[in-house]
Specification:
By secondary structure, the protein is mainly α. Helix content is 50%, strand content 6%. It is built from 12 helices and 5 strands. The strands form 2 sheets. The protein has a 3-stranded antiparallel β-sheet with strand order 1-2-5, with no helix packed on it. The chain has a two-stranded antiparallel sheet with strand order 3-4. Helix 4 packs across helix 8 and helix 9 packs antiparallel against helix 10. The longest helix is centred in the middle third of the chain and has 20 residues. The chain is globular, with a radius of gyration of 21 Å. The mean pLDDT is 90. Keywords: DNA recombination. It comes from Lactobacillus johnsonii. One of its GO terms (molecular function) is DNA binding. This is Integrase.
């Protein structure tokens, strides 16, 4: 329906049609509210769970080989950034910058799992557009990234290979792709599977009827931002890469701590 509406809008612009037969808000006009499903519901981490998750990830990262540590480092970084999976995959070492007094990433690209190549832009943004991510105040994470850059280069040098893409989370198990012109990052599937495995090792249980995946980290950080009255929604949506409408309606959920506090405050 969305594609049809776009097509008919094009015909209106060309004076072929006078009225678009697909109205705005067509779903609500064509269907009853009871016909809609509640959609996918993401597991919403608590602050304690994120702390435990970070500790477990760091422990496993330090005990893993270079090739096996990639996905764990990616997850550590994403607990601070809450990036879309396709943005996380193509983070580059040279995108780590100091901005407004803290380290963060300045990103301008995303990865297409279907095409197995970069999209050349961020989601719903023109080519060349960029944004700064959330600041990373934990200096240990910055040190991990810088140290991993040295270890990654040493690892690749042993096989006569080079990281021509600049990807931090380059798939070090895929030697064929590393030696090609289109180097591949770790897959979204492997990142999601690793997150589930680490959560299990850390004793974190998924909430009933929810999905535990990378987007859970994005929803967690968005909820923290949206529930912090000291932080403007405009700042939050700029750093997360959403319009303010999408940020508030899709990502911001009442965090588990404040929900519990509200229940305790209510007395009638």
């Amino acid at each position: 329906m969305a594609h049809f509406r776009t097509f008919f809008t094009f015909l209106i612009d060309k004076a072929v049609l006078a009225v678009n037969p697909i109205p705005k808000g067509y779903l609500k006009l064509f269907f009853k509210q009871s016909d809609f499903s509640t959609g996918r519901k993401w597991h919403l981490f608590s602050k304690d769970e994120i702390s435990v998750l970070r500790e477990e990830l760091l422990k496993e990262y330090k005990g893993a080989t270079i090739a096996n540590s990639v996905s764990r480092l990616a997850l550590i970084v994403d607990t601070y950034l809450g990036l879309r999976p396709e943005e996380l995959q193509v983070l580059k070492f040279d995108q780590l910058v100091e901005y407004e007094g803290s380290y963060t990433f300045k990103i301008d690209d995303s990865w297409s799992e279907k095409e197995k190549k970069p999209n050349g832009s961020l989601k719903d943004r023109p080519k060349g557009a960029y944004r700064y991510c959330l600041p990373i105040k934990n200096t240990e994470v910055i040190d991990l990234i810088k140290d991993f850059q040295i270890k990654q280069k040493k690892y690749l040098d042993e096989y006569g290979l080079k990281n021509t893409s600049g990807y931090i989370f380059l798939n070090l198990h895929n030697y064929k792709s590393i030696s090609s012109n289109n180097q591949l990052p770790v897959t979204q599937k492997s990142l999601n599977e690793k997150l589930k495995a680490v959560c299990k090792n850390a004793g974190i249980e998924k909430q009933k009827d929810t999905v535990l995946a990378l987007y859970s980290l994005r929803v967690y950080l968005s909820s923290l931002l949206g529930n912090d009255n000291r932080i403007s929604n405009m700042y939050a949506c700029q750093r997360m890469g959403n319009t303010i409408q999408v940020f508030l309606s899709t990502y911001v959920k009442e965090n588990r701590e404040s929900y519990k506090e509200n229940s305790q405050l209510w007395n009638c």
